[in-house]
UniProtKB/TrEMBL annotation:
The lineage of its organism: Eukaryota, Viridiplantae, Streptophyta, Embryophyta, Tracheophyta. It comes from Gossypium armourianum. Its EC number is 1.23.1.1, 1.23.1.2. The keyword Oxidoreductase applies. SUPFAM superfamilies: NAD(P)-binding Rossmann-fold domains (SSF51735). Belongs to the NmrA-type oxidoreductase family. Isoflavone reductase subfamily. The keyword Oxidoreductase applies. This is (+)-lariciresinol reductase. It holds the Pfam family NmrA. Dimer. GO terms for molecular function: lariciresinol reductase activity; pinoresinol reductase activity. Keywords: NADP, Oxidoreductase. CDD domains: PCBER_SDR_a.
């Protein structure tokens, strides 16, 4: 059997990053996690890193302000996965990855790089609205740098993180489902795709040694999880045994409210707009030069929307 690649996770203490570390270890990869000097005495992060070490990961010190430190850690591995922040209401550092790309280029040994994507495919969002398009534009800047440097890559388009979208019944600003009411975005009938974050990590790690995903985009579309907001609400109603009071927010109202919010909120709302009013995640067929994760890896028993939502009962 071929040797499993050694993996470096950058951004390993993050919301998705910690799941990537777990999945990499679970799939038997020798796993390295970047310990950024700058986290200093952030006790939560340090404790998390130590727990990774206890689980068998290697911690490697480096800094985005020290190119040679990045080159040195990249040289230890075959695959680099970056899960650096890219949500404006939390933190958005997507362009910092250009420094990582420089380090990977200089190191010259990396067989696969997965940049911090894990959402809507930015290549499909050239007409996205301001200000939220910044997320897609920045991710495309990183893609161009990767491709110009000739670094082998896989781009993971993970669609909606379940925690954000299912938790809030697809309503921006909510991450826990109400047992009383819900506001539908428009008619609530646009399909989107919801993926348990642990499954995103599992599928992502599956791709790294797979020749079928080399230099391709991999969409994660678990077939049972392609649902409209109304269908998500119905699943929740079935679980709680009660119908919610429903109202609706029109496209015009949504956009008007968006304009009154601060910049970071507007970025997030733009993304909800494209997903929930335009159906940008599910309104296209996966074409040549791309793959779909649940087809590539049918052995992964993904979490269905209903299973995911039982945690809120
Ligand atoms: P987090 O906000 O949890 O941050 C991830 C990590 O980024 C941090 O733990 C930290 O890692 C690193 N980081 C943060 N600031 C800096 C900095 N200044 N310098 C260097 N590193 C920094 O990220 P998420 O998990 O929320 O996002 C990861 C990816 O997932 C992004 O691309 C994002 O766009 C995408 N996403 C997609 C969603 C969807 O619904 N499809 C939803 C949410 C995110 P450390 O300290 O360990 O180095």
């Amino acid at each position: 059997m071929a040797m499993k690649s050694k993996v470096l996770i950058v951004g390993g203490t993050g919301y998705l990053g910690k799941r990537l570390v777990k999945a990499s270890l679970a799939q038997g990869h020798e796993t390295y996690v970047l310990h950024r000097e700058e986290i200093g005495v952030d006790i939560e992060k340090v404790q998390m890193l130590l727990s990774f070490k206890q689980q068998g990961a290697h911690l490697v010190i480096g800094s985005f302000n020290d190119h040679q430190s990045l080159v040195k850690v990249v040289k230890l591995v075959d695959v680099v996965i970056c899960a650096i922040s890219g949500v404006h209401i939390r933190s958005h550092q997507i362009l910092l990855q250009l420094k990582l790309v420089d380090a990977i280029k200089e190191a010259g040994n990396v067989k696969r790089f997965l940049p911090s994507e894990f959402g809507t495919d930015p290549a499909r969002m050239e007409n996205a609205m301001e200000p939220g398009r910044v997320t897609f534009d920045d991710k495309m800047v990183v893609r161009r740098a990767i491709e110009e440097a000739g670094i082998p890559f896989t781009y993971i388009s993970a669609n909606c993180f379940a925690g954000y979208f299912l938790g809030g019944l697809c309503q921006p600003g909510f991450i826990l489902p109400s047992r009383e009411q819900v506001r539908l975005l428009g008619d609530g009938n646009q399909k989107a795709i919801y993926v348990d974050e642990d499954d995103i990590a599992t599928y992502s790690i599956k791709t790294i040694d797979d020749p079928r995903t080399l230099n391709k985009t991999v969409y994660i579309r678990p077939p049972q999880n392609i649902l409209s907001q109304r269908e998500v609400v119905q699943i929740w109603e079935k679980l709680i045994g009660k119908e919610l009071l429903k109202s609706s927010i029109s496209e015009q109202e949504f956009l008007a409210i968006m304009k009154e919010q601060d910049y970071a909120e507007q970025v997030g709302l733009t993304h909800y707009y494209h997903v929930c009013y335009e159906g940008c995640l599910a309104n296209f067929e996966i074409g040549d030069g791309a793959e779909e994760a649940s087809k590539l890896y049918p052995e992964v028993k993904y979490t269905t929307v209903e299973e995911y939502m039982t945690r809120y009962l």
